[in-house]
Design goal:
The chain is built from 11 helices and 10 strands. It is an alpha/beta fold and 282 residues long. Helix 2 crosses helix 7, helix 3 runs parallel beside helix 4 and helix 7 crosses helix 8.
Length: 282
């Protein structure tokens, strides 16, 4: 993988007129099929799966999960069979995300929503083992202690001083990793409605990775109605950003973080000259 990913300063008057300087950590350019934090979270897990003698990866996700698609691509590239356990009912034709995962060799199976909520329970995992045999279990979003250690490598790639590092948050592993290694404050923008549970998840993930820190916070004001919701306000922001800067923002994660940074800057949250690194996760 082409690491480190580029760090570039963004010169956008819509932001800089409010005082901060913004640097984009272009993790979206790591790989077209396994971009950004998806690769960072999978990297050490793939090594562990290989070292433990596993030949199959099993993981969980929703019907539009980028993690499902990235796991399928990683399996194809690195020689693992892959199983995707999808929340909800099967629908034909497959949406583009699941169609791509299947094209990369992933076998798809489905759990009703009540069972899916218990996906970490021993009886559910045991039933999956009875059905599919041996596998290396990747949690939803790929978020575990090894994922935290992978994300903790990102701050070590930064040779530009900064005051704040930001990322979008779905499961909390990226923020947990960044905060554990960053010499500055880390701020995560939740993309989930009702997301305050993420505070507990970030703490749990850091504890499991042995990297607890207190230099982080989560903002819950920019979820735009919940996961994968893309109201007109968010789409208009992303369209304007693309037109001015030539960078397309992922509407599920990255656009929400970027909107939050711009809005907080307009509200005077950041002192003049604050140097912010925004991680473009994919």
């Amino acid at each position: 993988m082409p690491l480190p990913s580029p760090l570039t300063e963004l010169h956008d008057d819509h932001l800089t007129r409010h005082g901060p300087r913004l640097f984009l950590k272009r993790d979206d350019l790591i790989d077209p099929d396994i971009p950004g934090n998806k690769w960072r979270k999978l990297k050490h897990n793939l090594t562990a799966a290989r070292d433990q003698g596993h030949t199959t990866l099993l993981t969980f996700g929703g019907a539009y999960s980028n993690h499902i698609r990235a796991t399928a691509a990683a399996g194809r590239r690195f020689g693992f069979a892959t199983l995707g356990v999808i929340r909800g009912e099967e629908h034909d034709p497959l949406n583009p995300s699941l169609a791509r995962a299947r094209a990369d060799g992933m076998r798809l199976t489905y759990l009703d929503r009540a069972t899916y909520r218990r996906k970490t329970d021993p009886d559910v995992i045991a039933a999956l083992h009875r059905r599919f045999g041996d596998f290396y279990l990747l949690p939803e979003g790929g978020s575990n202690a090894l994922a935290v250690l992978g994300c903790a490598e990102l701050p070590t790639e930064l040779d530009t001083p900064y005051d704040l590092i930001c990322c979008p948050c779905g499961t909390g592993a990226t923020l947990a990793g960044l905060a554990s290694a960053a010499p500055a404050r880390a701020l995560g923008f939740s993309v989930l409605k009702g997301g305050p549970f993420l505070d507990r998840e970030v703490t749990r993930l850091q504890r499991e990775a042995g990297t607890e820190s207190s230099n982080w916070a989560l903002n819950y004001d920019y979820h735009f109605g919940g996961f994968a919701r893309r109201p007109q306000t968010l789409e208009a922001f992303a369209t304007g950003f693309h037109r001015r800067n030539g960078i397309a923002l992922d509407l599920v994660y990255v656009a929400k973080m970027m909107y939050g940074i711009y809005d907080l800057a307009a509200r005077g949250t950041f002192p003049a000259g604050t140097r912010i690194v925004a991680v473009i996760t994919g």
